[in-house]
Amino acid sequence: MVRALETLWGKSRERAGGKTNLLLAHLLDTAAVAELLWDGFLAGSTRAALDEVAGGPGRGRRLLAWLCGVHDCGKATPTHQRLWPEGAETVRRSGLTWVEAAALAGAKQQKRWRHDWAGGLMTREILSEAAWDAEQLDWVWPLVAGHHGAFPSLRDVQEPRSAKGQLRGRGAWRQVQQAVLDVFTREVGFEGLGEVEPVEVPSRALQLQLSGLVVMADWIASDERFFVGMDDLRLVSLETSRGRAVSAWKALGLQGGWGTLTVPGPEAFLDRFGYAPRPSQAMVVEAVRRMGGPGIVVVEAPMGEGKTEAAQAAAEVLAARFGADGVFVGMPTQATSDPMFTRTRRWVQAIEGHLASRVVLLHGKRAFNREWKALLEEAGEYADEAFCGVDEFGLGDDPYGVEPEVRGAQERQAPAEWFLGSKRGLLAPFVVGTVDQLLYAATRTRHVMLRMAGLAGKVVILDEVHACDVYMSQFLREALRWLGQAGVPVLVLSATLAPEQRRALVEAYLAGAASREELHVEVPVPPGYPSVTAAWLPASGEPQIHADATSSWREDLGVVVRVVSETVPGARCSREERKRLQGEADARVGDLLEGELVDGGTALVIRNSVARAQSLYEELRERFGEDEVRLLHARFTVARRADLTEESLRLLGPRTPRPRGGRLILVATQLAEQSFDVDADMLVTDLAPVDLLLQRVGRLHRHEDTWRPDGLRVPQVFVTGFEPREGREPTFAFASEMIYGRHLLLRTAAVLPGAGETWSVPGDVPELVKRVYGADAALLPDTWREAGEEACREQENRDRARAENARQFLLTAPGEHERRTLAGLHYGGSTAGSDENSLQAAVRDGDESVEVVLVVRDEDDAVFRTLAGRALGVNGEVAPDVLDEVLGSVVRLPPKFTQAASQLRPLPGWLGHPWLRRSCALVLDASGRARLGDFTVSYDDEFGLRHE
């Protein structure tokens, strides 16, 4: 046995700093890292839960170390030992042999049967022989079998018959495998395998979190910079591994969040934010103080009410009461995540000054956030290079995951450096990102356990949740189920929610907390607005739901709403006719703005499509000149869009001095709909569903001390993008109908005020949303009723189809939410790639769109250039001082161009570049045009990307 332990290898010399790393050394290294995770990373709530599973206070730490360390025990089999010729020969000489022909046959029959699956089977059998209860066996073995990112079923992990036992190992192999587990177990501090057995079965959510911690510990212990191979068994011990782990921990700068918090007193709000809480903010904080356990809190308040500060103050209370160690803030878009990153850093710094450096911004374009860039330093190493020994003999055709990840360059050096690597972002203690990051945790994708490990132990804040449509809501509710079962407090923020939306969110969370497939509860309608609804599941098992409301800190605004009719082209209109009608519609808006802004003022114009925004901008630019009109949409390059967003917020910001008589018009798309902190005098908007329309209205008259022309002192909204018709239902702009559907547009049109009527905002908001999202057919005029019924059927069919489509990506199969283990969680394999584009397409029900890097090359010039004209190498090579400019030239193409863009490739000079090797180049000519399949597109910094 000793000879076998002296030769069984865990990491090859090539992946362990030049020396073979014995298997037992790697198991102990991983266990030692797990101890540090317990001491300096895990939330108090997680430690308490693991103590309960292990049998009492102080017992969870050793169990965690054992669970993490045992992950690679399956390497004590021929299926692994045969892979490295040098190591295989040494093992054979020790007396452990196998029939290579049979092993090869088995590997061909089931390529996925490697050390992880072997380990799952092995631990199940050996722990069974140690007299473990079946219910404990059933949840532990999947942690071993799934540590490379996906959970197989028990049927999956059976050794292929054609291997004839030569992959698992026969004869002496079984004794050696028993010895590996026995020696490791005693070294960790247990007397034997029987003593390891837990006393409670953890929830599936805790199992998934544990699995993520196993992966995290494995990845850290596979860093050959700190865990150089140990090939002398006499030097292998837990104490030695502890020393190595401490060195790695310090060097990597791994830290938890705020640690143990005391429940903040009433004075804390003023200390954190510099002003006394408003009534609605005090109401939210008091609601979470009264909760009998972790739960879900739905905060509904108008724009400008201070929901963010209320949520942050409530999160601090929840963290202190229920042992959370950090926070995740999910925003609807990348653009809204950036300012929230700044606000979150300011907030945690007010709690403890050093915490601001631990906040991570998590979205695909964070490299263009100036504050994020300022925190980072250039780094020359590859972020994932140090961890490539995790699965050095991985398989490219893994049916349970995706292709092995390309090792990308480390983005930058930062205090939380390790968390910047692939798939690790949510593990940072404080994270601000798009809500997609949360939704990804509800998808059946490889390494989903890392996302759950990142969310568990935090307080989750989700802003603008009304922006989640029917499709995205499937993932949101799935995520809430897992968070509810994990006991993660969740704060959901919205201007307002339809009663059905509110009920669905609360039910999903409580169903998870109760580990039930379905749980129907009566969610009370809040008694006013702003409101808070708090729900939790106490130990008694009976859901508790409390709703409260108070008055807004601002008086209601009487908003005048008028319709600006627009002739909508029919389905058979020619392109020329459509263009003519669009020109007439743009001219009508131009006439309106000339009249309303005659004495100066600011106008926000929101169009429902980029093309409509570009068309109107062209009209207004001719009338008002370039100095008085701005354009903002999503088809500018990332650098240009960031600059335009910053400029728009500066010029139209609520505290920006306004020159008397000055005019400014911002033409934007839905980017200006959410968390867009501007204060406009008037609004022109395409018709949208009422909740989104009210979001747009919230950009008006946000501050009383802002100078406004006499004619614009009463907030005015002009609704366009549709054509009212006498005696029948209106028609809607094609883009609007494609995005939102006729059903909600018809019902919203029906609640628009008539002549002489106004909306009282925010007072009317809940009732307006309730009416539009309700089922009362009488809301529509009689002459619209037939069209309304047809639109309703269309919407129901569409919603049903989209919900069904989402289910193929959901983490849990329908009807399986009451299962007790993770076995077979990745049923049918992973359904979406783990790269950002694939995941985003999965959770947002979009055709997978493509990002391209725009470069320029004239026919007479052999040199590629940036958009600003700076030369690249002959093959597109990028000098360091030009890199930011090239990366800033990324633009996302509309989905209709995806097929044509599949022919695009990186420039030859990018193939070896860590950031550009997977980036496709769209080469423009000197006029800024390019052919893309059958399309011609153009780009300039004034209009952005256009389809000609």
Secondary-structure blueprint of this entry?
Layout: H1 2-7, E1 9-11, E2 21-22, H2 23-40, H3 44-54, H4 60-69, H5 78-81, H6 85-93, H7 100-109, H8 115-129, H9 134-145, H10 172-188, H11 193-196, H12 204-221, H13 238-252, H14 268-273, H15 279-290, E3 295-300, H16 307-322, E4 326-331, H17 334-351, E5 359-362, H18 370-375, E6 430-434, H19 436-440, H20 448-455, E7 458-462, H21 470-486, E8 490-494, H22 499-513, E9 531-536, E10 544-549, E11 557-563, H23 575-596, E12 601-606, H24 610-624, E13 629-632, H25 638-651, E14 663-668, E15 682-686, H26 690-697, E16 716-720, E17 722-725, E18 728-732, H27 734-740, H28 742-751, E19 758-761, H29 765-773, H30 785-807, H31 836-844, E20 851-856, H32 883-887, E21 890-892, H33 898-901, E22 920-924, E23 929-932, E24 935-940, E25 944-947
Parallel strand pairs: 3-8, 4-6, 4-7, 5-6, 7-8, 11-16, 12-14, 12-15, 13-14, 15-16, 20-22
Antiparallel strand pairs: 1-2, 3-9, 9-10, 11-19, 17-18, 20-21, 23-24, 24-25
